[in-house]
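Deliverable D5.2: sample structural annotation.
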Amino acid sequence: MKKIVQILLLISSINLYAQKIGTVPLKDIEVPYMKINISPRGSILKPYQNKIFVDFGQISKQSKVRNGFIYDDNGNEKTFNGIVDALNFFHQYGWELDNAFPLGCCDPTAVSYFHYILKKRKVKL
């Protein structure tokens, strides 16, 4: 039983290490704040699947926008079941929601897009 628990812990830690934003492992990001935007890209079969765009200051020009999405070890973009799923995902890596605000004008007929500002949690000693 002890061996099974150790194997499961090893597999779960590999999964956390595998997540990258562009080419940077998520666990290696050493900035105090980052901004995420949810991008609804659902299909007919998966209408609630969303991709998250992450900005922590890594994008210097338009051709580098691809570096703002989250990828697994296989190079596939990670999808989320909405913003709460994404916030729970980032919480595993030590981030917490600091602020959320709408993007652009407040047209009541427009789709609402929000910026979510995350900050790195302070380690309690």
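Annotation notes: Residues 2-120 form one domain. The chain has one domain: 2-120.
The annotation will be released with the project's public dataset once the embargo ends.
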